[in-house]
Amino acid sequence: MSFRIGHGFDLHRMEPDLPLIVGGLRLESDFGCAAHSDGDVVYHAVTDAILGALGEDDIGQLFPDKDPQWKAADSRVFVREAVKRMLVADYRVNNIDITLILQRPRISPHKRAIRAALADLLVCDIDQVNLKGKTNEHVDAIGESKAIACHAVVLLERVEAEEPEPRIEPPEDEEPEAEGEEP
User: Fold this and answer.
1) Beta strand pairing status for 25-27 and 3-16?
2) SS3 of residue 96 by DSSP
3) Which domains are delineated in the chain?
């Protein structure tokens, strides 16, 4: 069995009166991510982790922030593209471990919903997706709620081809024996 490991990281500046999208959920907050897309640091880190494990270009190369088509884009688009590439390469998620770093709001009440949304996007079971929320103990921009960051580490495993079913019919170039005839 073949395995590949990838790491993804994302960080966004927080500003007042913007939506805060984390792991596909819009969280109640008086500040949100300043970003070209919807600024979902979880989905961005997960996308880069998968792409990194595959040895592919990163999220910024595939979805450049200078390209207007990605303005305010739903970050599920990015995860879906990474998953599509993963499946085409005959890999699947063995497990993914995510660390979300933000001072507030608290992530604990939303962890299960975020894990479930990710499992759906990643075509895996929820128990293969782990999410930890950490504060920065009021240190630096994250600790002052001026930024949000996320790390994601993914382990991909190659999907083994199934053994072909035994053939029941003769090959096309062979003539079937007629009933009652001896070979």
Assistant:
1) unpaired
2) strand
3) 3-158 (3.30.1330.50)
